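Q: what sequence does this backbone want?
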């Protein structure tokens, strides 16, 4: 789907890309079926607010995003489904149920919150509170206890106080994010927030971003270290750029894994024992029984 109808005060998307428009269900499924027939094993459903999807079906009926996920999971050959990006106010109970019912949905959720402060969320016109967001996360964790969670944060939004920033740090601790995309606020001409008074110094904004990113990096490192000595299913994407004897792929929680393997593993799912956690990737070795299954399959 394209566009956005949320009109957050900091964002230009509704003005530059228009209102939310959803592709018809059949159009989406036909494209995914074609990809599956070509050997694609994983699809990523994209939209500015993809969980706001409302696609036409036959006879004028409308499918919401949760129903679309069920349809996609039924496509033969598709073993992994990702989606990005989502808006908290569109994260319905039906979507939570989909995480419980659809094993093809990867064990990762990216749900941008932008701030942990109710004051800032209101100024951003996000349409939800801190408590709303935390409640959604708890529902997701109830059906996927070990799910990897990530988010977006805007630091230094006009009017952000020390307490507002402290609320954001506290939310990070409560949720236990795996990683995030974090930025210092940058005014976009023509948006309401560009007219808001901003008396926070650039140095303060940089310091806040540094503190936030440091804590998130610590959490990311802890999760990566916790994956050592575990077996992860990796979708092999290609040869490693640094070592042509190795292949590289991704886990469900979007970790890059490098391990020694034959090029014919590309496009296959391989069980990999994680042996080392590096700053930006993991190393491992393929589980022999997993390779045997692939060899017989190929």
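A:
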């Amino acid at each position: 789907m394209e566009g956005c109808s949320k009109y957050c005060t900091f964002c230009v998307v509704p003005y530059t890309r228009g209102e939310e428009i959803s592709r018809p269900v059949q159009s989406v499924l036909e494209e995914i079926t074609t990809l599956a027939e070509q050997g694609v094993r994983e699809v990523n459903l994209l939209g500015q607010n993809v969980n706001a999807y409302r696609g036409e079906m036959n006879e004028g009926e409308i499918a919401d995003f949760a129903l679309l996920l069920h349809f996609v999971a039924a496509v033969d050959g598709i073993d992994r489904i990702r989606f990005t990006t989502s808006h908290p106010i569109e994260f319905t109970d039906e979507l939570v149920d989909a995480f419980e019912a659809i094993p093809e949905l990867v064990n990762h959720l990216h749900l941008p919150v932008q701030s942990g402060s109710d004051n800032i969320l209101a100024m951003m016109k996000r349409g939800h509170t801190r408590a709303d967001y935390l409640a959604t996360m708890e529902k997701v964790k109830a059906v996927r206890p070990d799910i990897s969670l990530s988010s977006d944060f805007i630091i230094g939004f006009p009017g952000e106080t020390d307490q507002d920033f402290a609320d954001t740090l506290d939310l990070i601790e409560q949720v236990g994010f795996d990683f995030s995309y974090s930025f210092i606020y940058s005014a976009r001409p023509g948006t309401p927030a560009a007219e808001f008074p901003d008396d926070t110094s650039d140095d303060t904004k940089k310091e806040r971003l540094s503190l936030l990113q440091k804590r998130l990096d610590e959490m990311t490192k802890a999760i990566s270290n916790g994956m050592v000595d575990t077996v992860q299913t990796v979708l092999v994407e290609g040869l490693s750029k640094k070592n042509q004897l190795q292949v590289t792929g991704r886990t469900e929680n979007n970790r890059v894994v490098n391990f020694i393997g034959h090029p014919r593993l590309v496009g296959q799912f391989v069980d990999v024992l994680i042996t080392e956690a590096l700053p930006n990737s993991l190393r491992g070795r393929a589980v022999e029984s997993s390779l045997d299954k692939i060899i017989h399959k190929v």
